[in-house]
Specification:
Structural class: mainly alpha
Radius of gyration: 47 Å
Number of helices: 20
Distance between the termini: 103 Å
Number of strands: 2
Helix content: over 70%
Order of helices and strands: HEEHHHHHHHHHHHHHHHHHHH
Strand order of the largest sheet: 1-2
Strand content: under 5%
């Protein structure tokens, strides 16, 4: 407003001065361009210049008004788009939570441009596309998320999708890269456990146990269950390998696991499978000690497979368990096996028949059939094999 008033005052003063000058000497103005010329009084020229000046000022003001108005229109349109896309994002995540994957994918991708966190939009869309079975599109969304993400969220989602597809190898590659770049991020560890478990990578899991315990990734119960699973897998992998390797693993195992009956059974099987007399003797001692502490039919059955150096003493050890477990079919079958190893055919036959009387089992029929064949009783042997086969088929 001040600028406008000052302009008019200035124009008025100039007009007054011009009028005063023309009253003293009106003069004239001649403008010649080539063959053309224009002649006018100074008063007329002054009026024309004043009108031209005013016209230019009006045009300038109009231009400024139009620019300001257009900016207002653009600003209003921008805010409309922002509100619209944020509403799409909200709606997309609502569809996501409801499992409406196609609607979630559509709204999340459309709302990504003006979203406060576009990476989340693309990650949600990737999961939705994956749920719809479009893995290629899910991969493209993940690439877009990686392009705008400021954290490890894109890599985490990619690994989870690999795990869901049971592509454990690819998941582990992604997680290892992420763990290498961000070793302080413990959220990666449970996913690495899942990937290694899927690959049955027990050695790799064993190497993670220390970090898992230090960072308290699992509850104490969960950690102990995982630790047990890892050592069971390791021992099973050592069945049939060098007994010394299994022995080293046994020494490394935590004390509570060395009292676990299933782990004792797997380790003992490793020793027996080696075929070495020393290893079988160690297995017999371990099984005897564990059975005396806590009875286990599985361990008793395995005890019969151990070829101890002193077979008579091994049989006496097993017979010492009989008073407390007189009707135990597994113990009776084990005694029959140990008696046969000591060439006590009558005792072996008696124990095996008692075992079958308590609980008919196909493997015991097979043992008795083999024993009867050795004794030359072919018909009875064949009958045992038949009954065992029928039992195995029907079980």
């Amino acid at each position: 407003m001040r600028k406008l008033i000052l302009t008019f005052v200035t124009v008025a003063l100039l007009a007054g001065l011009l009028a005063w000058a023309m009253m003293r000497d009106s003069g004239y103005l001649l403008v010649a361009v080539g063959q053309y010329s224009v002649e006018m009084s100074l008063a007329t020229a002054a009026v024309i210049l004043l009108l031209a000046y005013l016209l230019l000022r009006v045009i300038g003001a109009l231009r400024r008004w139009l620019v300001s108005a257009s900016k207002g229109i653009i600003s209003s349109d921008w805010f409309y788009r922002v509100r619209r896309d944020r509403a799409r994002t909200t709606l997309g995540f609502s569809h996501y939570l409801q499992g409406q994957w196609r609607l979630a994918e559509r709204n999340l991708t459309r709302g990504a441009k003006f979203s406060d966190a576009p990476a989340l939009n693309y990650l949600g869309a990737a999961i939705a596309a994956h749920e719809l079975g479009d893995k290629q599109q899910a991969g493209r969304y993940l690439q877009q998320a990686e392009g705008v993400a400021q954290d490890s969220a894109a890599a985490i989602v990619k690994a989870k999708l690999y795990l869901e597809d049971r592509d454990y190898k690819s998941a582990l590659v992604v997680l290892q890269q992420l763990h290498k770049s961000q070793p302080q991020d413990t959220s990666v560890l449970p996913l690495m456990v899942a990937a290694r478990r899927g690959l049955a990578d027990w050695d790799g899991l064993k190497g993670m146990l220390k970090d898992l315990k230090r960072h308290k990734v699992f509850s104490e119960t969960g950690f102990q269950a995982l630790q047990r699973e890892v050592y069971l897998g390791l021992f099973r992998n050592h069945v049939g390998s060098v007994a010394g390797e299994a022995g080293q693993l046994w020494q490394e195992a935590p004390a509570p696991l060395r009292r676990d009956q299933e782990i004792v059974a797997v380790y003992a099987r490793c020793l027996v499978a080696s075929g070495k007399a020393e290893a079988c003797g160690e297995a017999e001692k371990l099984l005897r000690k564990t059975i005396n502490q806590q009875w286990s039919d599985k361990l008793v059955s395995l005890y019969g497979e151990c070829a101890a150096e002193d077979a008579i003493q091994q049989l006496k050890t097993a017979e010492a368990w009989l008073p407390a477990h007189r009707d135990n079919a597994v113990l009776l079958a084990t005694l029959g096996k140990l008696s046969a190893r000591n060439r006590l055919w009558g005792k072996a036959r008696d124990y095996l028949n008692k075992s079958l009387a308590v609980e008919p089992r196909a493997d015991v029929y097979a043992q008795l059939g083999k024993l009867l064949a050795q004794l030359g009783e072919e018909q009875q042997s064949a009958k045992c094999y038949r009954e065992g086969l029928v039992l195995a088929i029907n079980s």
